[in-house]
């Protein structure tokens, strides 16, 4: 569908202008200067030619085929112009002009009006209020965009709503003398969407890596599906901004997009398999490495250096990120002992010394590429004035060209004096970074993608022991209630196979005593009323009640303390001695539910040691959650404490995920605490709030 947008045979500019500083002039200049291979058709009722090209009064007068029409005219004229484009058979319209939904309801009306017309003619709209597209393919060279960065052909493609950030990233590549493939910035994105472009780029052979920038997702699930598919084929690198409230506000107020909850976007990124970044500089560096290097098979790094300190800086970063520096194999060691100076360090990192020659670098690199101990190589290369650094660069470039394993280079030099050395490396596609930490982080990004490819997605478990109809009946009865009563909650948990201690509801004190006798002592008594939220804060929980007298006393006290007409008593078996954990779910509009797991008590309140995922949670993800909290060692048992039944918790997370997936009307659900034992886990307190 987007093939002709990115490979147009002819481009018209409606609103082409004779004035140099006008967008309608700049787009024509860009097409010309970039060497666009198709026909260029300025449309302007008053001009005969613009920038030396024949202009037409109307798009209907254009003799050739027009695949893409730019519109650089006031918003109110756009619907009419779309009509003309329809008659002409234009396939895509890039609307650079603003004045649409981003400005308010009147603008939104115009946006709807032209979109209706476009749909009637089967025209796809790119934008409005956008920059446009660039395709650097030598057969196309379409610069349908009003910016000013002219890319060399490359393998990195950029897609973002925000033209400002897309262009910053683009300039980052340009500053590093790295080319790009396709650039797309679609502003309001009223029709052609980011997920649609990502799908196109996933199948575009020339694109090796997709880079995107997000300020909030319009259609989170569409984005998720598109990225998930794309990330299985090639790396998708992304950065999200608007993490602070102030940042989110700035995002919400431009291009009409709405920044959603930060957490959900992070989880979508993770679940879809995005390599995510919080810093645009690191994103740019990583993309450069992905653009020219193969994906490593694992996380083992070999380092070659001709100077000591920088390799130490890099090693810290690599090891912190979970990469390893294994020793050289015996074969490599023997070979290097023979090849390098006797004073050279023959271990990992290998220090070939400042006097290391092109042969030393070349042989060492080749040995590491052949050594099964390594998955990727980091080269620290300082350019000593007494060495033939161009020969060294050639030796590195030659090994790189064989693309056996990924390599990145920390090139430490005065770029003006050693321009040729740098040019040799860059021409062969060696990613060169001035700082050791930048080179190391780019390598870390390559390994992060490997880990994404290798991770076990797991399965969403299907359960056969659920009473879904029973649960549905309770939800139906509760229609309009913001909060379920305790008996409703526990019946639902039981219907979903979630273990709870034996319980009964009682309407009065006598009933509570009778219920306790039926359950068997010791019991716990809890006050249940709509107004009672944190029961223990209001004196509404009495644990370890040993006999009828204790129950009667506790119930009497609760009646005195809690002034609620609807007060009832929830009587529950007392289950002491477990490790308290918390599970929760929260509805996230347009996404599903966030699922939370953590240790209970002070761990959740003070340390906030909780992890999240998105429903539906797979078995592998549930396991990762249980293992993922910082205090996870406590679950395994420390200093003689018994471990808890992690398998039961993993099962519980999945049952909870299933429950909220089946009943999207659940706004929030808390199991706080769940008592985890050496065998089994039991929810002793539960709340379910509904979307009303
Ligand atoms: P709330 O969270 O509304 O204050 P809970 O029902 O969670 O009330 O009870 C408070 C605390 O009492 C729990 O965190 C737990 O430590 C303990 N508790 C509650 N029910 C039981 C039970 N059935 N067995 C053992 N301990 C319990
Ligand atoms: Mg509680």
Layout of helices and strands, plus pairs?
Blueprint: H1 3-6, E1 10-14, H2 23-34, E2 39-43, E3 49-50, E4 53-54, E5 68-71, H3 78-88, E6 92-95, H4 105-121, E7 124-126, E8 132-135, E9 142-144, E10 156-160, H5 163-175, E11 182-185, H6 194-203, E12 209-214, H7 220-233, E13 236-240, H8 245-252, H9 262-272, E14 275-277, H10 280-292, E15 301-305, H11 308-320, H12 330-339, E16 350-351, H13 358-370, E17 376-382, H14 389-401, E18 407-412, H15 419-427, E19 432-433, H16 436-454, H17 468-477, H18 486-495, E20 503-506, H19 509-519, E21 523-528, E22 541-545, H20 548-561, E23 568-573, E24 579-588, E25 592-599, H21 602-605, E26 610-614, H22 619-628, H23 632-636, H24 646-662, E27 666-676, E28 681-683, E29 686-690
Parallel strand pairs: 1-2, 1-5, 5-6, 6-7, 10-11, 10-12, 12-13, 13-14, 15-16, 15-17, 17-18, 18-19
Antiparallel strand pairs: 3-4, 8-9, 8-11, 20-23, 21-22, 21-23, 24-25, 24-27, 25-26, 27-28, 27-29
Adenosine-5'-diphosphate is lined by residues 501, 524, 526, 534-536, 541, 543, 572, 574-576, 580, 672-673, 684-685.
Overview of this protein structure:
The protein is an alpha/beta fold and 692 residues long. The chain has five domains: 1-131, Rossmann fold (3-Layer(aba) Sandwich); 149-292, Rossmann fold, CATH 3.40.50.261; 294-454, Succinyl-CoA synthetase domains (Rossmann fold, 3-Layer(aba) Sandwich), CATH 3.40.50.261; 502-574, 2-Layer Sandwich (Dna Ligase, domain 1); 579-690, D-amino Acid Aminotransferase, Chain A, domain 1 (2-Layer Sandwich), CATH 3.30.470.20. The protein is 39% helix and 20% strand. It has a seven-stranded mixed β-sheet, sandwiched between helices. Strands 24, 25, 26, 27, 28 and 29 form a six-stranded antiparallel β-sheet that branches. It has a five-stranded parallel β-sheet with strand order 2-1-5-6-7, with helices on both faces. The radius of gyration is 32 Å and the shape is flat. Residues 253-261 have low confidence and may be disordered. The structure holds adenosine-5'-diphosphate and magnesium ion.
């Amino acid at each position: 569908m987007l093939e002709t947008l990115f490979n147009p045979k002819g481009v018209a500019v409606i609103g082409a202008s004779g004035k140099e500083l006008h967008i309608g002039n700049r787009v024509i200049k860009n097409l010309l200067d970039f060497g666009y291979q198709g026909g260029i058709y300025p449309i302007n009722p008053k001009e005969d030619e613009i920038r030396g090209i024949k202009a037409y009064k109307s798009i209907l007068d254009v003799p050739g085929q027009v695949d893409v029409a730019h519109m650089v005219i006031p918003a109110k004229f756009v619907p009419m112009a779309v009509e003309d484009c329809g008659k002409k058979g234009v396939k895509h319209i890039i609307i650079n002009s603003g004045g649409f939904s981003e400005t308010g309801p009147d603008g939104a009306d115009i946006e709807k009006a032209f979109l209706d017309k476009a749909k009637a003619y089967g025209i796809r709209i790119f934008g409005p209020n956008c920059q446009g597209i660039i395709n650097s393919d030598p057969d196309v060279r379409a610069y349908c965009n009003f910016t000013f960065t002219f890319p060399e052909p490359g393998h990195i493609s950029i897609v973002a709503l925000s033209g400002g950030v897309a262009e910053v990233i683009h300039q980052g590549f340009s500053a590093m003398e790295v080319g790009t493939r396709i650039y797309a910035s679609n502003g309001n994105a009223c029709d052609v969407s980011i997920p649609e472009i990502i799908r196109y780029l996933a199948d575009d052979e020339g694109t090796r890596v997709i880079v995107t920038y997000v300020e909030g997702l319009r259609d989170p699930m569409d984005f998720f599906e598109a990225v998930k598919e794309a990330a299985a084929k090639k790396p998708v690198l992304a950065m999200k901004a608007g993490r602070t409230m102030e940042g989110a506000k700035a995002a919400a107020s431009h291009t009409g997009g709405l920044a959603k909850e930060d957490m959900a976007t992070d989880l979508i990124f993770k679940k879809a398999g995005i390599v995510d970044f919080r810093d645009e500089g690191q994103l740019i560096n990583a993309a450069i490495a992905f653009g020219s290097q193969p994906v490593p098979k694992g996380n083992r790094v070999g380092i070659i250096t001709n100077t000591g300190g920088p390799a130490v800086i890099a090693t810290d970063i690599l090891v912190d990120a979970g990469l390893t520096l294994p020793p050289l194999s015996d074969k490599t060691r023997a070979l290097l002992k023979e090849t390098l100076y006797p004073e050279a360090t023959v271990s990992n990192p290998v220090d070939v010394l400042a006097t290391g020659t092109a042969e030393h670098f070349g042989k060492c690199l080749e040995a590491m590429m052949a050594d099964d101990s390594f998955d990727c190589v980091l080269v620290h290369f300082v350019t000593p004035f007494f060495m033939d650094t161009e020969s060294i660069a050639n030796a590195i470039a030659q090994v790189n060209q064989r693309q056996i394993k990924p390599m990145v280079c920390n090139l430490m030099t005065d770029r003006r004096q050693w321009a040729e050395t740098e040019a040799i490396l860059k021409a062969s596609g060696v990613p060169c970074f001035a700082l050791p930490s930048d080179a190391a982080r780019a390598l870390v990004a390559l390994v992060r993608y490997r880990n994404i490819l290798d991770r076990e997605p797991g399965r969403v478990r299907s359960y056969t022991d659920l009473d879904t109809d029973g649960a549905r009946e309770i939800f139906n009865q509760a229609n309009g209630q913001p909060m379920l009563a305790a008996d409703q909650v526990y019946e639902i948990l039981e219907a979903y196979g979630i273990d709870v201690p034996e319980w009964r509801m009682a309407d009065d004190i006598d009933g509570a005593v009778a219920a306790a006798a039926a359950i068997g002592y010791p019991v716990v008594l809890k006050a249940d009323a709509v107004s009672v939220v944190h029961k223990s804060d209001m004196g509404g929980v009495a644990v370890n009640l040993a006999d009828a007298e204790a129950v009667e006393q506790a119930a009497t006290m609760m009646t005195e303390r809690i002034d609620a007409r609807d007060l009832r008593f929830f009587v529950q078996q007392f289950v002491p001695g477990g490790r308290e954990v918390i599970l929760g779910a929260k509805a996230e509009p347009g996404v599903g539910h966030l699922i939370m797991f953590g240790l209970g008590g002070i761990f959740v309140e003070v340390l906030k040691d909780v992890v999240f995922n998105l429903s539906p949670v797979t078995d592998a993800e549930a396991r990762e959650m249980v293992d993922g909290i910082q205090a996870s060692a406590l679950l395994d048992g420390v200093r003689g404490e018994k471990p808890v039944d992690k398998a039961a918790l993993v099962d519980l997370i999945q049952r909870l995920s299933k429950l909220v997936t089946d009943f999207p009307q659940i706004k929030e659900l808390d199991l706080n605490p769940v008592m985890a034992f050496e065998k089994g886990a039991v929810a002793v307190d539960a709340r379910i709030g509904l979307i009303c």
